[in-house]
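1st attempt posting a full record on here, be nice pls
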Amino acid sequence: MTELSIMAARLTSLVLTLLFWAILIRAILSWVQPDPRHPIVQFLDRVTGPILYPLQRIIPPLGGIDLSPLVAMLLIELLKGLLVNAILNLGS
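the predicted structure (as tokens):
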């Protein structure tokens, strides 16, 4: 396994983990209705929007609850496992 593949796998894992947490924080913030003009709220929207908006068009709310963050987080964890393993296998 090369050092480069290990570093690429770690970076991929880190980016996907940060995205996971951004989606989780955005979901929690949605419960308290923060000011949409707040810089943190705008940042979270810019980072997570490209993932959540397409999912929201596909997955209808269930009893008024948006399940797209949960689906996105599950997909990120699946993608993380697949990508990190693929990167490490390429380096062997």
